Amino acid sequence: RGVVPFHGAQQAGITTDAQDRLAFAAFDVSAGVSRDQLRELLVGWTAAAARMAAGQAVADDAAAPHSPPRDTGEAIGLTAGNLTITFGLGPSLFDGRFGLAGRRPAALADIPPLPGDNLDPLRSRGDLCVQACADDPQVAFHAVRNLRRLAQGTAVLRWFQLGFGRTSTTSSSQDTPRNLMGFKDGTNNVKREDTASLDKHVWVGADGDQAWMRGGTYVVTRRIRMLLESWDRDFLLDQEQVFGRTKTSGAPLGAAEEFDPVPLTTRGADGEPVIPADAHIRLAAASTNGGATILRRGYSYTDGVNQETGQLDAGLFFIAFQRDPRTGFLPIQRRLAASDALNEYIVHTSSAVFAIPPGVRDPKDFWASGLF
Ligand code: HEM
């Protein structure tokens, strides 16, 4: 019940129906760790992840009452909750420490500084990442916690982000959720049924420059704080013009239903475009970005109160998958950063990019085995 298959051509947690909860962690490999030790970590992590995805404990501890339990225990009695654990490698892993410099795909390049960024370096980047998604927050937390535990002595947590509500749909059978600004989010996302679009925009094809990444993808994460106090004082009409959609129904302005085509070329009686020139959905649309298309799979987050301002520290933990961030996230974000009406109400506070290798084929295989 609630089990998403762990093994397959692609990793789960990308086109899998977006679950409700997120626990996303970035790790740095510790100084002095060898390539063999890194390989061992990935073998151990993969085995543990396969067990947890099946709703099992990392290990059966009953036989060893005089050792610390090898599973931390908080998921005992819970279902797998559609847990997916998705693994990735950051650009810094290819800096020469492990003799992997020649294996770095060109697409795995740090995201350059972008206008409006206010990034916290301690919440950005990382050698490795683990995205755990589940319909139960404790199941997602348990997955990351136990992988961290297995990494003791080999890798340390660099940053950790919890997300409490999905802000996307990755399948046409899912309802569109709402983000913290109260708008439906994910309407015009790439859906898993659209395999032609996934092959074109998400999965690395046979022409990928590194054979070990073929069938994989790349993830870009951005922690985007929403200035909710300002947003909540804005008029409804202005809020709708910021996105270019109606708040309640999610329909594009100038259209009737949520999934109606976005009327990008229609003008109103006043001669102005019904979707304003600086509306988020105009500037983010593939048709206005030379076809740049990404699979969004982000989550709402809150980390309490921002102690400097006394305001809510909450927003969108943006997650997007694409076959090459240089032709996916980057051109879209450059355009948004320059003129999105939404910029008045958001601040990007962290940034990371990771290569997501293809799926683990069977129980003998392991994450990123093609690298070793
Ligand atoms: C569409 C919200 C950041 C890319 C949308 C929609 C909403 C939304 C409500 C309309 C519904 C939909 O089609 O999903 C937000 C919020 C953001 C944010 C609140 C920040 C806090 C970003 C970023 C990117 C992005 C950083 C990429 C760099 C897109 C794309 C679409 C979209 C590609 C679909 C446009 C279309 O084809 O109609 N977003 N978004 N968004 N957003 Fe964002």
TrEMBL record:
Under the cellular component aspect of Gene Ontology, which terms does the record hold? cell envelope; cytosol
Report a single Gene Ontology molecular function: heme binding
The Swiss-Prot or TrEMBL record lists the needed cofactor(s) as: heme b
Q: Tell where it localizes.
A: Cell envelope
| Entry EC number(s) | 1.11.1.-
Dyp-type peroxidase C-terminal domain location is 176-360
UniProt keyword Heme, yes or no: yes
Q: Which InterPro entries match?
A: Dimeric_a/b-barrel, Dyp_perox_C, Dyp_perox_N, Dyp_peroxidase, EfeB/EfeN, TAT_signal
Q: Which NCBIfam families does this one have?
A: Dyp_perox_fam (TIGR01413), tat_substr_1 (TIGR01412)
Write down what this protein is called.
Deferrochelatase
Q: Which organism is it from?
A: Frankia alni (strain DSM 45986 / CECT 9034 / ACN14a)
Q: What is the lineage of its organism?
A: Bacteria, Bacillati, Actinomycetota, Actinomycetes, Frankiales
